[in-house]
Amino acid sequence: MRLILSISSDIGTALAEEWHRDGIEVMGTYRTWSNNCKKLKELGIQLIQCDFTDKKSIESAILSSVQIAHWNVLVLASGDQNPIGLFKDVVFDEWEKSINANFTGMLRFLHRCLGFQSTEMLRTVIFFAGGATNSATERYSAYTISKIASVKICELLDFEILDTKFVILGPGWVKTKIHQSTIREPINSGQNFERTNKMLQGNQMNPMSAVVKCCNWVISQPKEIVGGRNFSVVHDNWGDSKLNNELLKNENMYKLRRFGNELFNEIKESQK
Q: Domain 2-270 sits in which CATH superfamily?
């Protein structure tokens, strides 16, 4: 059974629809009822209400269905860009709430799910990354920190838990409702408002089909190739055997690392 946290998100809904068409059992959580929820319910997909900022809601959701214990693929698809603005200007309680919604709340749910016994040889957990892996993203600090933390926890969990592979995917610019947070904040979002509008109105978005295809590829791959790594749906040649060979040779590839270590070592050596 495949479990999608925030199945009502546009990516979560796209995954659920494809897997359901393929005859795979799917269920998932939603925070607020939406058109996506209505569409999925009409397909017969089980939906469970869950607010990742509320511990009681998480526990209630987990206890609401015995099917949750039988998961073999778990997707963490929740994402909220709010609060948008400079860190010093946002309300800190809202900032902290965003960390719960984007990171710790889903991890609380995952922590409980990892405790269930599995008959599967290898389970899969898929996270989704955001921007700022190689730079600083202004005005989205809570969302960005949550996504960077997700990159590292993915590697840590993959190292600790041998019967499960943990992978994180950067979907790129995909036409989803997450961008409406920026559109509703033309002043607080700064230059991102114009950039987001331009992307939404243009023809540069990454197709949802590519995100779904990459998720399916990750699920099909062995742990030693994809486990603990951060893949870009747009920029990486996933699905290419040449990339697989490189990944097998380099355990640091597509992981969070400090840049410039070799330069420092060269300086030290030259001073001896």
A: NAD(P)-binding Rossmann-like Domain (3.40.50.720)
Overall pTM surpassing 0.70 (yes/no) = yes
Token pair for residue 136?
Answer: 């600083």
Tell me what the pLDDT averaged over the chain comes to: 93
Query: Which position has the token pair 């243009």?
Result: 202
DSSP assignment letter at 84: P
Yes or no: say if 124 and 165 are a contact pair by the CB < 8 Å rule. Answer: yes
Q: What are phi and psi of 129, to 5 degrees?
A: -90, 170
Is the separation of the CB atoms in 41 and 18 below 8 Å? Answer: no
Distances (CA, A) of 50 to 1, 15, 67, 72, 173: 19, 19, 16, 20, 26
156-165 as b/e, with b when 16 or more CB fall inside 10 Å?
ebbeeeeebb
Is residue 239 left, alpha or beta, with left meaning phi > 0 and alpha meaning psi from -120 to 50? left
Distances (CA, A) of 237 to 150, 186, 214, 250: 22, 35, 10, 16
Question: Where is 4: in which H helix or E strand?
Answer: strand 2-5
What residue type is 124 in one-letter code? Answer: T
Q: What token pair was written down for 84?
A: 């948008």
Helix (H) or strand (E) holding 231: strand 230-232
* CA 186/CA 179 separation, integer angstroms: 12
164, β-bridge pairs = 123
Domain locations in the chain as residue ranges: 2-270
Q: Report the candidate in 36, 56, 55, 57 with the shortest Cα–Cα distance to residue 47.
A: 36
Res 230 pLDDT > 70: yes
pLDDT recorded at residue 268: 61
Query: Does position 266 have pLDDT exceeding 70, yes or no?
Result: no
Examine the pLDDT at 272 and tell me if it is beyond 80: no
